[in-house]
Structures are given as C-alpha cells and as structure tokens.
Amino acid sequence: MGRRPSTPSRPDGAAAPDGAAADGARRWGGSGARRPRGPAGRIAARAGLPSVSSRRRRTAWAAVLTGTVAASLLAAPSFSSATPATPAAPAGGPSAGGSSAEAAECPDGLKAAATCYAGRDHNGAYYTVAIPDEWNRSLVVHAHGGPGLGDGSDPERSVEDLERWSVMVEEGYAWVGSSYRRGGYGTRMAAADTENVRRAFVAQFGEPRRTYLHGQSWGGNVAAKVLETYGGSRSADAAPGTGGARSGPYDGALMTNGLLAGGSRGYDFRVDLRAVYQFYCQNLPRPSEPQYPVWQGLPADSDLTTGEVNARLQECTGHSSQPAERTAEQQRKLTDILAVTGVPEHELASHLRFSVFTFRDLVNNRLDGRNPFSNKGVRYSGSHDDAALNAGVERFSADRSAARDLAWDSDLTGRVDVPVLTLHAIDDPTVYVENESAYRSTLRAAHRGHHLVQSFTRESEHSGLSAAEYANSVTALDSWVRDGRRPTPRSLAASCADFDQKYDTGCFYDPTYRPAPYSSRVNARPGGHRWPAMTSAQERRWSKIEGIGIAP
User: Fold this and answer.
1) I want to staple 439 with a disulfide (CB 3.0 to 4.6 A). Which of 23, 139, 260, 335 is the partner?
2) How much is the average pLDDT of 416-442?
3) Alpha helices, DSSP H only, in 393-486?
4) CA–CA distance, 208 with 174 (Å, rounded to integer)
C-alpha cells in the first residue's frame, strides 16, 4: 500500500502534538566523567580515541569501522556461521553479497541519538541502518509497504521509513530497512531483500541478541512471508522466556496495519472496484479508445498518467467537488460505486489508481499478461439497480497458472513459530481491519494460533498511528520473547499510558474489539471462505514447478 504522511493522527482527525518527536536517548547519570555513549563511543574508548561531539563521533565511527581496530573489536562472524541455514530461495534470493554500508546522515529526529549508515546489496537494493547511541543490542528489521512502481530501487524509501518509525530507534533498537531491488509487485522478492539486509547488518555489525521483524501495510505480507520462508522456527524447548536455542534468525514479529490476507484475496475489493467503476463510468477505457479487459489495469504500452485517471474519476463522479457542485448523474454514480464496493470516499481515488497502475504492473510485468483475478460468482449489491449492475458488469475468470503464481508468491500458510503481535487501526481506509480475521484463521488452521496476539485502535490512519502505540507494541513483543509474558489486548491498553507520557501522541486501544470475518468486507469468490488461502502442502507442491511465482 502506498506511502502516507508520517504525522500520527488522533481518531477525530486532529494532528498529534509536535512534541511527538524524540525526547532523545537515555543519558548516563552520575557525577564526574560521562561514560561513552553508544557503540561508536565505546569502541572509540577501547581504541584509545578521544571523546568527540555527536557529529565527529559519527565520522570517527566510520573510520574505526574501516580500520584494523574495528576488525579486531567487532569481529563480525562470517555468514556461514552467523546465519542459520534457510530453505532454498528463488533466483536472486538472500546472500551476504553487496558492499558494506557507509556512514550517512540520520533523519533530523535521530541526529543527536543515533549513528546511521546507507548501503546497497548485491541485488541493487538500497538500505538504511540506524544504531542508537544507547543500543539495547536488539535489532528491528523493517519491511516497507507499497509496492512502489519505479523501475529500480528508490534510495530515499528506506530513509523515509526510518524517519517515520524512528520511535523504535528512540526506544533503543537498532533498525535496518531495505528499499527493495525494484518497484512493482513481488512479495517473495521483497522478503528476500528484507532477509538480505538482516544478513548485511550481521556481517558488518555483529549478531544482535534478538531480532524482530516489523512489517507495515503490504510490508506486513512481506514480513509474514519472511517468517515462513527464511526462519523463525524454534525447537520445542525454546518457547519464549525459556532461554532455549533458536533455529532461525528471528525472535518475533510486529505487523502494523498489515495486508495479512495475502495477494490472491487481498486485492479482490479492488478487482470489484475496477469492474464496478467501469460499468458506471465507461472511461477506463472510453468507448472511443482501444478496448482492454479491466483486470489488466491498463495495457502495457499505455501512457495514461495518474493525473488523467484522477480527471476521469472527477468527470464521471465529481469526486473532488462539493456535493452541491455535482450533477445528479455524477452523484448517483458516486453513491452507487461507494455503496457497492465499500471503499471509503476519501480513499476512492487511491484505490482506483492501484487497480489501474499496480494491476498493470502485476499482470503485464510479473505474470506475462496472464490474469490472476476473478469476479465469477460475485453478486454485487447496494446500488439503486442491482439487477442491471450484475447483468452488465464485466465478468472474468482467472488464468489458473496466474492465480497459482500469485498465491505462491504472496499467500500465507500460517506456519510461524515465534511470537507475532499485530496492531491495526479499526478504521484503516487502505488495508481493512478484516485482514486480521483472515490472519487469525490462517494461523489457527496451521495450529499456530497460540503464537498470535492482535490489538486494535480507534484510529483511521494507515501509516500514521500513535508513536506511543508503536513504542508500546515493540516493548510488549520484546517482553513476550524474553520473559514469556504474553500480552493481551487489555494489558497493551494499560501499558500504553507510560509511553504516552514520553510521546504525547495518545493511546486509542479498544481491547474489546473483534473484527468481522474477511468475507463480510470483501466479496468472497468460490472457496474464498476457507483459510489458509495456500496450504503448506500446496506450497511444497508448487515449489517444485519450474518458473513458479512472480518475475523477479
């Protein structure tokens, strides 16, 4: 899902106070000389280097890392010994390749409290690292949302995400995030790039005590795929809090507003939007333009722009006008589209653009023109004339191989063996909260439901939840892993107040909320009530097919 402003908002839409920025990392107390701050200061002290200012510390840290002192003091293990064995990956999967990250400027809110680095892995994916001066020796590996649609890796994306979730660094966690090797769809590709930056971090900075995944929006789908594909499995005696040895690199995961229904079902509401919109508006394509099926999004060679799509939406529905300025026909069409699809009015343009441009990428660039979508068996309702709508709307069935490839790439089996905590805004307009019902059913069907705790807040943002809630969530996950203290919706609601004293962004938990089934929000296709959408047996069988999945 797309990027949104990072400023947290309260449920009433009021912006959070400016004081939500970092208070700064913890300082060493006591009189006399101060102890060296952070990994840079401590390594410099061991090496006999003088104490320096924050900016000069970063320069000294870079010099130490590239010198013989770093080689002797950090002694980062080689990949073969530091990283547990993982399942075979698709071509272009994780490896230790790529150059080391170099010192870089931190976002403004972290400049006084962390040291930052930027690098690029062997697949061309840019990544960003932040190590707080008072590092708790745990690492957060971040999977970003989207997908974006650029041809290559966007070097700014991981920097922007670090700034957006700097609260995790402020809480003492090192942070690393990949921009992924390219834009466009590819959940397993993004999962491989996410695992790649974890390995790059270990190779340069050493193995952290604990490693957590954070997935936001589509990144929740990516992070869940990382857990299922690259590790996180523990032996029977290694339950949280027991101190048992792990067999995978991850200790737990936090998914926030995650697309956890997977790709084969997660976009069905946008498939419906695309079909219903065209029934009413007839301008994507226009009758005078070359015709193409709506499941294609756009032809591969179309030069239609996002601005032109917005203009056509406005032409048909008067979407951006005040209600009094719309014609009666525009208002009727807008009312019908919203009523039938359930898309929030203020997100209609965004969801429509996704169903145009991201569908084009998925179909034409990743699936060789094959159709992974279907609206067969769907009865649309809520319009002023449902009979006419269902008789006239474009109908299509998925190509079986395309549906299989999309499912293998992005659907989830639920086979995770580490604690997973989710946080979801009840009124998230981009990734509906009912995704959490799908994920709960998926893990329960895989007999992994005891690894999942879900929490919900009375917010209506997608990528801008309260900083106090993010800090509360990562701390609760860490306590669950270290001490076996499994959080509950009520304990999360209670503990958030302590973090809000620091961040002053509000705590909006609703510990009594339970989301409705996924099919209550998204029209289920035949068989679409059963979870998981892809079983472990299917995944194993499909993995043997040459060329399976999304084009890298």
Assistant:
1) 260
2) 97
3) 400-410, 435-445, 467-483
4) 9
Mean pLDDT of 379-384: 96
Q: What is residue 523's predicted lDDT score, i.e. its pLDDT? A: 93
Query: Distance of alpha carbon 505 from its chain centroid, rounded?
Result: 22
In sign, the C-alpha dihedral spanning 438, 444, 445, 447 is positive
Residue 219, helix vs strand vs coil:
helix
CA distance to 106, 113, 164, 421, per residue, from 169 (Å)? 11, 9, 11, 19
Strand-pair partners of 116? 104, 130
- 142 by Cβ neighbours in 10 Å (0-12 / 13-18 / 19+) ranks as buried
CA distance 43 to 135: 13
Residue whose entry in the numeric block shows the structure tokens 């400023």 = 7
Calpha distance 510→507 (Å, rounded):
9
Q: In this predicted structure, what is the pLDDT of residue 365?
A: 94
Q: Is the pLDDT of residue 201 over 90?
A: yes
Task: Provide the pLDDT for residue 93.
Answer: 56
DSSP E strand boundaries for 217-292? 252-256
How far apart are the C-alpha atoms of 414 and 86, rounded to whole Å? 17
User: Which is more confident, 354 or 2?
Assistant: 354
Name the CA radius of gyration of the chain, rounded. 24
Q: In angstroms, rounded to a whole number, what is the distance separating the alpha carbons of residues 409 and 297?
A: 20
Neighbours of 52 (CB within 10 A): 15
- Per-residue pLDDT, averaged over 246-259, amounts to 91
- Give the H or E element holding residue 386: helix 386-392
The answer to whether 156 touches 139, Cβ cutoff 8 Å, is no
Q: Percentage of the chain surpassing pLDDT 70?
A: 79
Task: Report how far apart, in Å, the C-alpha atoms of 433 and of each of 217, 286, 500 are.
Answer: 11, 34, 24
- Running DSSP on this structure, what letter comes out for residue 362? I
- Please tell me the least confidently modeled range out of 41-50, 267-276, 484-493: 41-50
Q: Is 165 helix (H, G, I), strand (E, B) or coil?
A: coil
For a pLDDT cut of 90, what percent of the chain falls above it? 75
- State pTM to two decimals: 0.82
Helix (H) or strand (E) holding 338: helix 328-341
The C-alpha atoms of residue 449 and residue 354 are separated, in whole angstroms, by 32
SS3 7: coil
Q: Are 79 and 98 in contact (CB under 8 A)?
A: no
Q: 213 - beta bridge partners?
A: 141, 253
Q: At what angle do helices 187-205 and 218-230 cross, to 10 degrees?
A: 70
Q: What pLDDT does residue 455 have?
A: 98
Distance between CA atoms of residues 41 and 108, nearest Å: 20
Decide: helix, strand or coil at residue 383: coil
Measured CA to CA in angstroms, residue 292 lies from 119, 288, 296, 298, 455 at distances of 42, 12, 7, 7, 42
